[in-house]
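Fig. S4 source data, part A: sequence.
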Amino acid sequence: MRRRLVGAALAAAVLLAGCGQGGSSSDEGGSVEKGGILKVGTVDYIDSLNPFIAIEGQSYNAMVMQYPQLVQYGPGIKIEGDWATDWSKSSDGLKWTFNLKPGVKWSDGKPLTAADAAWTGNTILKYADGPTSALAPALSNVKKFIAPDDDTLVIQYTDAVGNVLAQMEQFYILPEHVWSKYTGNDGKDIKTFQPEQDLPVVSGGAYFIDKFDKKGTTVYKPNPNFYGPESNTEAVALIYYTNSTSMIADLRAGTLDWIESVPANAAKALESEPGITVQSELGSQVDNITFNSNPVKPENRELLDPKVREALEYATNRQELIDVVYNGYAEPRANLISSQSGDWVNPAIKPLPYDPERANEILDSLGYKMRNGVRWAPATTGEYAQAAHPMSYEVIVPGSLNYNGERYFEIIKDSWADVGVKLTLKPGGDTGQAYALETAGGYTKFDIAVWDWVGYVDPDFMLSVMTKGQWYSWNDTGYNDPAYDAMYKEQSRTVDQEERRKLVWEMQAKLARERPYIHTVQEEIIMAFRDEWDGFYPQLGAYCKCYYTSPHLTQ
């Protein structure tokens, strides 16, 4: 997804070690001070409360808080039961049985049963090639869901799968009595439902949303029917800011209690502020330069050439990006999969050094002649013939980035100009508007964008975004390679983890060779909170309900 809230490399190491505790500011247990309203500042927003169209990390955090999951990642980034108490699988791995906490209800008092989970899963499967495709990757190789009774859910698979629990963490269970009204028009109506227009949202999770304002304040209130640990606060108020300056000022003034993601240029100043704690660690967000990779794009087809992209990576000054845009709070990155995924990351994939001389050599060898400081692509013949034209391109820069996209663009523009490539900024608007620009005309209208990705611990989701099946859902490049799609399907049904790792590494190597993205940096996540509060799990945003239920007053 775009910008899952947090997720640390440290946490991944804990996962691989199989031990340890979560956030460094969280409590080890015992009684805590209850009450108060936790006021959270953000420059990211909830783009939708409909999980079939949501993109932003704040939206996915809202799904986790509102909807039951069979399992979730808990402290230490270890899988734990959410609604499920325990689970088992058949000897052939084709049937998984989840036992659920009994006698629970939705926030509106209606029974919450396994039938809701079965309906949700089967609906996603029914329309997986269309309206529900955004959630379909989590159900890869699932044949059907069965609810033999209110407290038991059975999932039948067509093939044994090696990452069932990691996939089920991404399965949000919806109230059938609310959502079943929106399955008409071959399922297309499900994308038209706007829960934010019918408050309070019917919830089975830790909170229900009582007030919603996309660019204002959204209020989470504890669900009295929640089956899990209760909230330590009376409510959580998520407050959207159009600029970080005002947000930082409100934290200093005590109007805010917690900033989930502090802008890098403000972090050092906050570290010396009395009464405020600042924490930073390597996160899971990987920022990138996105190339239109649709093999049938009609214009500027030279950008489809991996050698051109290789030259442009040599021309990309990652260190200047880190120093200027991120104030040092980032590391160079060349892989779609962040270091959070531990041993799933192919260690052979490393960033190319900044070397404009080498970039010029490659472009010279490919025949792109320099004229008055700008290279020209020669005329071509054949099905996609092009006239000779300058290597001059628009770059979509979304306005919803959590880093300074315009400054990021300017650095790339200047460094690429040194090798004869001219760039012009095209404002992308918000997330939905930027994605519409990328997908316009069947991924045929854009050339380059800048954006970011934040995935899960298991690499399946991030690998899925490159498939043809995710066109118009998660795929933002138009990448379309049947061989890659076949590799994705094979890894998803490979149970032996060593064999699956080999496939996952091969897929990463293929993407690294073809460069549908130039990945630039992996950001550090920086959070700040007032000392009146504690109990934070900073790496569990959009992973665990404890992200909001655990924080508590210290006095």
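Fig. S4 source data, part B ends here. Residues 283-524 form a domain with the Dipeptide-binding Protein; domain 3 fold (CATH 3.10.105.10).
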